[in-house]
Amino acid sequence: MSEIIETLQFVYGPQVANGLAIGVAVILMALGLTIIFGLLDVINMAHGEFYALGAYLGITLAARGASFWLCLALVPLIMAAIGYATERALIQRVFHSGDRHTLTLLLTFGLAIIAEDAFKLAYGPNPYKPDAPISGASELLGIVLPNYRLFLIAAGSAIILAVWLVVYRTSLGAMVRASAFDRNMASSLGVPVDRVYAGTFAFGVALAGLSGVLLAPVYSVFPTMGKDFILMAFSVVIVGGMGSIKGAVIAGLVLTQIQSISSLFISPVWSEPLVFGIMVLFLMVRPQGLAGRLGHG
Amino acid sequence: MQQLTIIAAAAAVFIAGQAQAQSTIKIGVVTPLTGTYAGIGQQVKWGIDLAVKEINDKGGVLGRKIETIYEDEEANPNVAVQKAEKLFQVSKVDFLTGTVNSGSTLAVGQVAERNNRLASTTVSFSDAITGDKCSPNMFRVNAKAGMQSAALVEWMVKEKPSPSVFYLGPDYEMGRSTVAAFKSAAEKRGAKSVGEVFAALDNKDYSPFFGQIRAARPQVLYTSVAGNDTVRFLTQLSEFGLAKGLQIVGAAGTVTAQNMGAVGKAADGYVTGAAYSAEIDTAENKKFVADFKAAWKTEPDLYGVDSYGVVYFYKTAVEKAGTTDTDKLRSAMRGLEWQTPQGKKTMRAGDHQAVQDMYAVKVVNGKFQIISKVAGEAAVGPDTCTKF
Questions:
Q1: Hey, what's the torsion of the CAs at B6, B12, B17, B19, to 10 degrees?
Q2: Does residue B155 sit in the same domain as residue B269?
Q3: Whether residue B138 sits in one domain with residue B16
Q4: Which residues contact B264 (CB under 8 A, 6 or more apart)?
Q5: Hey, how many other C-beta atoms are within 10 angstroms of the C-beta on B313?
Q6: How far apart are CA A234 and CA A256, in angstroms?
Q7: Taking CB atoms and an 8 Å limit, are A127 and B228 in contact across chains?
Q8: Closest in A139, A220, A264 to B204, CB measured
Q9: Which of B225, B240, B274 represents a domain boundary (last residue)?
Q10: Domain for residue B377, yes or no?
Q11: In CATH, what number is assigned to the domain containing residue B322?
């Protein structure tokens, strides 16, 4: 009996805890992606590059002397402005054509390619590793986890809660959900739909940028970092249901736990393909995902 | 009469000139002077230059001074071959050395055979060079990879008889072959293998791999990651509290002067097998380190000391043979014993591999300290060269 408890505590416990830290990070990415799809019907292939841009902005500001906490506050604001501008200047142009899905996919994909090369030109191909602002590790119930990852879990959960509150408990959120449900009706009721669209896109991009700053001390900052993360984020969005916040949270937690626990039994490099396999399975069996779409469910 | 005098004078000068030209011994050095391995090439050059200066000051070899000619191999076997051909055929060198890249060493061995000259490497450690790909014209004065892991295994089983070992290596040729080599050497001495995993080169987050390490509960962890991967792996191991009570050992290239600073405290206690340490406590080594530092303002490393040693190897062989003729020199080199700052080395006749004592070294407060020694014969392993 005590051996089972010991195994749970020493082997499974840390996997669950670490999976939680990674899960919260992935959910933050997936939230932005799913909100943008849920409202704008835009598949943002450049989401990973916005995540990378947030991380690069973070280290640039830090190099000028800003503390980690200041970066954490500033970067989402800068990213929101960039997101707003991108939506108004680029996405609006292709939004009203019949081919919207293909065109926005191509547009954002192109943006992603340009961004990755721009990062390489501006910052060089070598990775930067910013120091974690909180050092040391803590032991809870025999599970040792670095303090920064505990902070990630706490801060990430707080942000997810805040997003949920804004979308479901404020009038701003109501406007967003109304525009997603029926654009024309919302517009005739006085909702400034164009600005809501741009603002929502900006919000999603800001979330991606925030994840970038938060995760930089763990994963380092390098030009292809967006590609690494975006696949996981897409899997979460698809399994959770494209456009559903609740689905993204549940899928994010479950998928990262599967990834974490499976790495005990199979080589960790196969854990990610396992998660993608689950995503493919969902596409075949239940393409709408776990939960419904923003504004609809 | 005047014409005859001029002709005689010219002839005398010409003959004297010829005699002068024949009297230096030319050693060609093909080593990376630019590129990723330029740091290694720099130590090679420093080691050779110091030895040549010492020998020339004492009168040279058989009364002839040594002249060195350097060419840049750029750590590229194709370039090394071209430069070696040039040195043999145009500069007419008597002996070639300095190749760093194992591929370059193998290729230059064939060039030496074609030109009927001898060569030696001072850095390359692929076992094949004095193993299944040996050449009758290529020698190796430095330790090979198998000797480093032999020294490490020897120390490990003395510290912990029948240890349980977990392996983590980078997922490409070097990582897989170093883990396989150490694993087979360790298992032969009673170690129990409790797991092995391979992480992608340049992997950022090693925490997914810690699950299996925790589940296996090893006493020893062997790793062959290098460069920045080492920095991330060791610091993350320590952040997650896994380094407590775990003995971490690894390849010689895993923790080096280049990444030691970035790894910091997480490197303390790391043990590896090495063929040299500047701390070796013999009069010969202390003098060598002092002379090296005085000449080049830097401490010598493994590559510097082995390159210093190769010039003395050549000198001892030429003096024993009494000539620089290739076949007589080759016979003199086989079985030759010569003094180096690392102690006495013997050149094994069967495969042209130098046999020397090996050390286990441990990182203590950011510096490597010698913790045990393995005799040359125990470390060198069997002769697997069948070509001569």
A1: 170
A2: yes
A3: yes
A4: B235, B366
A5: 26
A6: 13
A7: yes
A8: A220
A9: B274
A10: no
A11: 3.40.50.2300
Question: Which chain A residue lies closest to B168 (C-alpha atoms)?
Answer: A267
Q: Which of residues 13-52 of A touch B (CB under 8 A)?
A: 14-15, 18
Same domain (yes/no): B114, B189:
no
Q: Does A141 contact chain B (CB < 8 Å)?
A: no
- Sign, CA torsion B91/B95/B97/B99: positive
Residue B245 belongs to domain spanning: 147-274
> For residue B245, which of B168, B163, B152 has the smallest C-alpha distance?
B163
- Smallest Cβ–Cβ distance between B211 and the set A139, A264, A269 belongs to A264
Nearest residue of A to residue B200, measured between CA atoms: A269
Smallest CA–CA distance, residue A137 to chain B, in Å, is 6
- B114 shares its domain with B171: no
- Does a structural domain hold residue B368? no
Instruction: Give residue B62's identity as a one-letter amino acid code.
Output: L
Q: How far is CA A285 from CA A249, A280, A281, in A?
A: 20, 9, 6
pTM of the predicted model as reported, rounded to 2 decimal places: 0.74
Nearest to B208 among A137, A146, A268 (CB): A268
Q: Strands B118-121, B138-140: parallel, antiparallel or unpaired by DSSP?
A: parallel
Q: Are residues B75 and B159 in the same domain?
A: no
> Is residue B380 one of the residues assigned to a domain?
no
* Nearest beta carbon to residue A219 from set B171, B204, B209: B204
A14/B211 touch (CB, cutoff 8 Å), yes or no: yes
**Which of B82, B73, B88 is closest to B26 using CA atoms?**
B88
Amino acid at B224: S
Number of domains in chain B: 2
Which residue from B minimizes the CA distance to A10? B214
Each residue's pLDDT, cut to its tens digit, for chain B (388 residues) gives: 677 777 766 666 665 555 444 589 999 999 998 877 887 889 999 999 999 999 999 999 999 999 999 999 887 889 999 999 999 999 999 999 999 888 889 999 999 999 999 999 998 878 888 988 999 999 999 988 888 888 999 999 988 889 999 999 988 777 888 898 899 999 999 999 999 999 988 788 898 899 899 889 999 999 998 877 888 899 899 888 888 889 999 988 888 777 787 788 889 999 999 888 888 888 999 999 999 999 999 888 888 999 999 999 999 999 999 999 999 999 999 999 999 999 899 999 999 999 999 999 999 988 888 999 988 888 888 888 988 8
Contact B45, B70 (CB under 8 A): yes
Same domain, yes or no, for B123 and B234? no
Inside any domain, residue B363: no
Single residue among B249, B274, B299 that ends a domain in this structure? B274
Place of tokens 């669209």: A197
| CB A269 within 8 Å of CB A28 | no
Compare CB distances from B200 to A219, A260, A269 and report the shortest one's residue: A269
**Structural domains in chain A plus CATH codes:** 2-285 (1.10.3470)
Complex ipTM value: 0.75
Residues B154 and B254 both lie in one domain: yes
Residue A261: closest CA among chain B residues belongs to which residue?
B211
Residues of chain B with a CB closer than 8 angstroms to some CB in chain A: 171, 197-200, 204-205, 207-212, 214-215, 228, 232, 239-241
CB-CB under 8 Å, A146 with B211? no
Together in a domain, B160 and B218: yes
